[in-house]
Design brief:
By secondary structure, the chain is of the alpha+beta class. It has helices spanning 2-5, 63-82, 106-115, 154-166, 178-183, 198-205, 223-230, 232-247, 249-264, 268-302, 336-341, 343-375, 406-442, 447-475, 487-492, 496-543, 553-558, 567-582, 590-612, 626-649, 665-689, 695-735, 742-749, 752-758, and strands at 26-29, 32-35, 48-53, 86-91, 97-103, 119-121, 130-132, 189-192, 320-323, 330-333, 383-389, 398-404. The strands form 5 sheets. Strands 4-5-3-8 form a 4-stranded antiparallel beta sheet. It starts with a helix and ends with a helix.
């Protein structure tokens, strides 16, 4: 990409102009000559980069500390080479860092793949299912046969090389704990570099070049290629994003038409609000059922459905060393009761943060009141309005007649909504750090339990932070009677139609602000930070009187931002799902803006991953984790919120006994209970009527399982036949009085079955 091979000053360079940094070393591994170092500036075949500080330039370190860092780096490089990996070390252009590139030959990867029994896909002639890798069966795997040589996909190469680096030395691996090296600051960072297939993926995905029809380009995603490059964790997120966006098309169109009708019709709430509420409640259930089917389709195709994945211990996990009662080996143990003891403190912090959100809400309300007073606006009256002036002598407020314009009245509300959106973003950012710190303090062993705990904490807070203002407008303000209260409460009372208008303005302002801030943070900010890093480094070199040299590929990628996980991406979509389903009756057009945003989000995230960020760590999964449970909780909550908006906030029912649509407050609560139970019943019927797994996918699973079992049976049968034949030959050989030639003897004693039979060492 341009950011990799272009200097911050704007000067472009070609890769071919780079000169080698050092000679290529050779070492024999097995029967092949394995290069241990390549020039990284001429497209060397490496997949990982390890970055160490140049201890010679660490002036604040003692000589002993510098020597320890140097020895640690030497130990790491020696361990990598001893494990049969290809390694090269070189200094950065400003000499303050050492870069170590790590790669592996196809043969070394095959050895590791068989040792770890990684799943590989069979070709269609053998069923197309997944089976454990074996070097003797390369012709059975996808991509091999008919003159083609089997090779691992780019994500598999990355996974296998990391497995070699972190595997046990007893198994011939390097035995490194990379995360712990970074955590203890013995190494600055490590990352997988982008592969040669990145550019093809970028063209097909980010630019939609892979779409066959022009209308398919809107939502086109080569998810299989995304999975082959990034792994199923990221691919499943984009599968979810694509499914959600596809199912937003109908609500988006309905929302746009509904918005137009709400403007055109006089009695808009009475006619449309209940219809929108029912539609979006049922739509959310249909979408969740559709996602279950899409997930089953994708995970079956990728061979990860129902698969078990290795859980790695977090480097920050701490505890006492004990002998495992299961394996008998030493392990780090942390009793669960210690984590439970911390629970009250965690809850106290969460509620303290929620209290700060409520305080911020009061501040925003006061801000909107001040803006309206400055404009001479109060409540829903235009031009001549009674405004309440506050002072120490009149704490309840003194009525003052003032002029009010539409611009002042609604402009102040929009400004208040924008400020609210910014405050929400700030609180979310602060709380994410607080929640991360609390979750680290809980000391979870695995990343999966750590992320689940973080998701639950974040959702509890962000649910309140994101929706509290809207709930206040929808369910609290309608009960404030303007005629019976003064001062602050007088300023907050509203008639039903006015409440719906305020809810519409507030939702649209918050939603729009969140979209703008989110896209700036995801796309613009990482690019700016990468350019700043490069510019600062060039200035540092210029101060020494030297001319900045072009960045090598590892250096350039080290300047890019880091993609931590799919947490933020899922979090953004889940909050958006809440805005769409909770308040669609008040602001149906929000679904239309959500659709436009998600279409853009697909392209923005693809550009971000392919160009603006380092290559993420490859991960495998068959589900979206705790987010699925949260989606179901929000689906249930959407029913109650929409029923409340129809019966409490809108003017569907009147408070005046003289009106034809009058309904008393007690009767409204009765209707609320009946309506939400009826909607829940409809949602249950939809849930039962729509199968979680499509029939075609179920058939494909059974077909692949049958073919794979047949392949395994054939494999076992062939091995037994070979063993029986070999044992018969050995018995015949033992009974024979004839002698073999030297060549025949050498061939016999090196046969695997003879080695087993006689215990002969090769």
């Amino acid at each position: 990409g341009d950011i990799v091979y272009r200097m911050a000053s704007g000067r472009s360079i070609e890769v071919d102009q780079f000169s080698p940094l050092m000679d290529i070393e050779k070492k024999t591994y097995g029967s092949k000559s394995v290069p241990l170092s390549y020039d990284p500036l001429v497209r060397a075949p490496y997949s990982y980069v390890l970055v160490f500080a140049n201890e010679e330039l660490l002036n604040k370190k003692s000589e002993a500390e510098k020597e320890n860092l140097r020895m640690e780096r030497i130990k790491v490089v020696s361990a990598l080479r001893a494990a049969g990996l290809t390694v090269q070390r070189f200094k950065s252009r400003d000499k303050d860092e050492y870069f170590v590139t790590v790669g592996a030959t196809q043969k070394r990867l095959e050895v590791e793949a068989e040792a770890n029994s990684i799943p590989v896909k069979l070709n269609e002639r053998h069923g197309g299912g997944y089976t454990e890798f074996k070097q003797a069966e390369l012709d059975f795997y996808e991509g091999s046969g008919e003159g083609n040589t089997f090779s691992f996909r780019t994500k598999e190469r990355v996974q296998l090389i990391k497995s070699i680096m972190e595997g046990s030395k007893r198994d011939g691996d390097a035995g490194l704990d990379l995360d712990k090296l970074v955590y203890t600051k013995k190494m600055k960072t490590y990352f997988a570099v982008h592969g040669p297939s990145r550019e093809k993926l970028f063209m097909e995905w980010a630019k939609s070049k892979g779409a066959k029809k022009w209308y398919q380009a809107v939502l086109y995603q080569p998810l299989d290629d995304v999975r082959d490059y990034f792994g199923s964790v990221i691919a499943l997120y984009f599968g979810f994003l694509g499914c959600y966006t596809k199912y937003l098309f109908i609500p988006g169109i309905v929302g746009l038409l509904g918005f137009i009708l709400q403007i055109a019709l006089t009695k808009k709430d009475t006619i449309l609000v209940p219809l929108f509420a029912v539609f979006f409640c049922l739509w959310s259930t249909v979408f969740l059922e559709a996602w279950k089917r899409e997930r089953a389709t994708l995970t079956t195709r990728w061979g990860v459905d129902g698969a078990s994945f290795k859980e790695e211990t977090r480097p920050a996990f701490d505890g006492e060393v004990r002998k495992s009662p299961i394996t008998g080996q030493e392990e780090v143990y942390y009793p669960s009761w210690k984590r439970r003891v911390k629970f009250p403190a965690v809850v106290a912090v969460i509620f303290t943060m929620i209290g700060m959100v409520v305080a911020a809400l009061i501040g925003i309300i006061a801000f909107k009141i001040v803006i309206q007073q400055m404009c001479g606006c109060q409540n829903s009256t235009i031009n001549t309005t009674v405004m309440y002036e506050f002072d120490m002598q009149h704490p309840v407020g003194v009525p003052v007649v003032a002029n009010c314009t539409y611009v002042c009245k609604y402009g102040g509300k929009v400004l208040g909504g924008i400020v609210n959106g910014i405050v929400i973003a700030i609180f979310n950012a602060i709380y994410k750090k607080v929640a991360t710190t609390l979750t680290k303090w809980e000391n979870h062993r695995t990343m999966s339990s750590f992320e689940t705990s973080l998701v639950i904490k974040s959702f509890l807070f962000q649910f309140v932070n994101s929706y509290v203002t809207l709930f206040y407008i929808a369910f609290f303000r309608p009960f404030i009677k303007i005629d019976h209260m003064g001062g602050f409460f007088q300023a907050q009372g509203c008639q039903p139609e006015e409440c719906m208008t305020d809810l519409f303005i507030q939702l649209l302002s918050i939603f729009g602000t969140q979209l703008l801030l989110g896209n700036f943070k995801e796309v613009v900010l990482p690019y700016i930070m990468a350019r700043i890093k490069m510019r600062l480094e060039e200035k540092k070199i210029l101060k020494t009187g030297q001319t900045p040299q072009p960045l090598s590929r590892p250096e350039a990628e080290s300047k890019l931002g880091v993609y931590p996980s799919t947490f933020d991406d899922y979090n953004e979509l889940i909050l958006q799902f809440g805005y769409v389903t909770f308040f669609a009756a008040a602001c149906p057009i929000v679904s239309f803006f959500a659709l436009l945003n998600n279409i853009l989000e697909i392209r923005v995230d693809s550009i971000k991953l392919c160009r603006s960020l380092r290559r993420p760590e490859v991960g495998e999964t068959d589900n979206i984790g705790a987010w699925r449970t949260i989606l179901h909780v929000m689906n249930i909550a959407a029913v109650m919120v929409n029923c409340g908006i129809v019966l409490i906030t809108s003017d569907t029912f009147s408070d005046d006994p003289a009106d034809y649509n009058y309904l008393s407050i007690p009767n409204r609560f009765l209707v609320f209970i009946v309506a939400e139970h009826a909607l829940f019943l409809l949602k249950i019927i939809l849930d039962l009527a729509i199968p979680d797994v499509p029939a075609a996918v179920e058939e494909e699973r059974l077909r692949k399982d049958f073919k794979t079992r047949s392949f395994h049976k054939q494999r076992v049968h062939t091995a037994e036949e070979e063993r029986t034949l070999t044992e018969d030959q050995m018995e015949e050989f033992e009974d024979s009085d004839c002698y073999m030639s030297d060549e025949e003897t050498a061939a016999a004693v090196t046969h695997p079955m003879l080695v087993d039979h006689y215990g002969i060492a090769k």
